[in-house]
Protein 1
Amino acid sequence: MHYITAGESHGPQLTGIIEGIPAGLTIDVDEINQALASRQGGYGRGNRQKIEHDQVEIVGGLRHGVTLGSPLALVVKNRDHAHWSEIMNPTSPATPANTVRRVEHPRPGHADLVGGMKYRHRDLRNVLERSSARETAIRVAIGNICEQLLAALGIQVIGYVQQVGSVKADDGISPALNVAQIKEQVEANDLRILDQDKVASIHDLIDQTKRAGDTLGGVIRVVVENVPAGLGSYVSWDTKLDAKLAGAVMGVNAIKGVSFGDGFKDATNLGSQVMDEISYDPANGFSRLTNHLGGFEGGMTNGMPIIINAAMKPIPTLYKPLQTVDVNTKKPLKANVERSDTTAIVPASIVVENVVAIELAKAVTDAFESSNIERLKGEIDRYRRELVEY
Ligand code: EPS
């Protein structure tokens, strides 16, 4: 399975193609649109989201709502393109009139400067437009199709916010809750956090930060349950599934760190506090008494819930502009002020959830014959029974 996306933030549309989704899977388009709406939401978003109303169009690979096994092609239109139709016109030649709003003052922490140097762009808008997190809308559309595939196989994924700036929204690991319970709690507020009592103080923090012209990052957690043991492999470094998941999560804009389970705490804890002791019961087979390692041993799923943590840096576009240098005059000045979010931690939690779903769907379809969903279900059910009998 593989996928690719194309499209600029203020261009006509975002486009995505995914190949490798089995034939015979019924796709609920409303569910994709709900995921897109969740990605647009959250406290601390800027004004762009008042313009956009993301809706997916499926233009290949689907017939009467059922996948054909051929590549799926998806489109999400950028409504804001109406305001940029000359400046971001894909085909009309450049003129003085349609090359206004040049970006020549690179924003620190954004792709602007290095992207310009690498691709020889003098107008850094050519970088900004693609490096913008707008692209994550189409990754969520693709990810939701993968979530629907995983759900058909009994595997559930949820992403939520665990920390905003330095304020922790819950006490860390939440293994007592299953994915459905986490979903219900985090969808009850606009911060996607578990502890409703923290909502007001985090709103205050975001409001204060916005007034100061600054931005906030945070920590995201993804939990996946009912994953069969043995996805990924210890035999070679590039077959380890935790490494692939970490790569996909790092591939989400502004993510600076990824860990599994107790993560960096494992470095200071004693071995006896870190290893998850093994238990057995005849009905369910082997299990673990705890889940400090976040569902991975030897690069393989071990049958416990997968727990992934992702650290997001604050948005690099600040209303309080930072020091930079004009790429033409080479004179120091303050970076361009562009419209921005105060924090994108809520949308990022949806995006991280979805890229995890894509990577897991890839792992499952690589491991089992997956031309048709019913055959794939049968193979996974047989495999699950074999694991219990081991
Ligand atoms: C972004 C800047 C803002 C965000 C955008 C990401 O867009 P604009 O420059 O049009 O105000 O709203 O995110 C989205 C459009 C989105 O759908 O998530 C950036 O510079 O990365």
Protein 2
Amino acid sequence: MTDRIVVAGGAGYIGSHVCVELLAVGKEVLVVDDFSNSSPEALARVEEIAGRKIALLEADLADAAQAEKINAAVAAFRPDGAVHLAGLKAVGESVAEPERYYRVNINAALALVRALDAAGARRIVFSSSATVYGEANPNPVREDAATAPANPYGRTKLFIEEILKDLARADPRWRACNLRYFNPVGAHPSGRIGEDPEGVPNNLFPFIAQTAVGRREKLRIFGKDYPTRDGTGVRDYIHVCDLARGHLAALDYLAGHEDAGAIDVNLGTGVGYSVLEAVEAFARASGRDIPYEFAPRRPGDVAEIYADPSRAARLFGWKAQKTLADMCADHWRWQRDNPDGYRR
Ligand code: NAD
Ligand code: WQD
């Protein structure tokens, strides 16, 4: 049974929820994070929710000068495996600064791999993304669909997936699971941890939530003439707590399957909702108006994408349980109780 887990990027939006789930089932956790896009306050709140302590190494995984410190801390922790969520994730930024995205994301992954290898813990669950899929795949998207990421961020995800596959080919002691997240939203039902984007949010849910709480004047809906049921884009939104449970399921699967190799697994609900449906559900959950206007399509957006989540069900016995109403209610509770995120 895997019970000592390194969580790289554990202070972030998804990582903090993964930590809560790991602690809840009695695992020991070492978070490695440089807080470049998160706050130590998130970890304090994780400990408060779980009633248990987290070990922390504040370090930049992508900085070679910190490798010795990282290797020593990981080895001293005696891990059984790791969840790797550390990296840069803004699509637009990756188009403008590709060198930084490749350097940080690839180097961070390699540094974690080296630390795990040295510690003899060759099991890793990686935060990949539905963004690795090409544009032209039929829905629901299966893991064997064509990959063709449309930007440098997505390519870092695909390259790291391939690196983990090569490791498993070269040395069967490596076991890896590339979790391809669809659209993570929502927050822990306690309202204590959630997504806290810096500046103007790029993603739909944080933008809706900040509009509902009065921090933004109105939402701009990108595109109203897509070939979808109401003309707006359709996505597979998944509650972050369901997503976090998926990481536990993946770790348990790897622990129980010596010959797992490196596998790709979608984490989604299998159901798509349109932007207008999401806005309506959020307005209902929050009791607030969400003013919006239509704007041109956002470059790079696809009309519709949702997962075939049956591999996760078959291999892990995992299924998303929470509804769109749950996602909105929990996202709203976090936003309402923490209008300025962790910064207050
Ligand atoms: P996040 O930015 O909230 O979390 C990432 C964490 O990693 C942050 O705490 C950040 O400080 C840390 N970090 C970044 N670079 C680091 C480095 N060099 N060394 C140490 N720590 C570092 O992002 P998130 O939304 O929680 O996403 C987690 C992972 O999941 C990311 O890899 C992201 O690409 C991936 N992902 C996210 C989404 C999404 O919509 N949120 C979708 C698919 C995949
Ligand atoms: C959802 C829908 C928009 C904002 C992105 C990344 C992807 C992954 C998840 C990491 C689309 C519409 C949005 C707004 C809008 N991240 N929208 N107004 O684009 O599916 O995926 O996050 O791996 O890589 O690309 O998510 O939340 O940005 O957009 O109308 O202000 O909402 O056009 O239809 P997306 P999103």
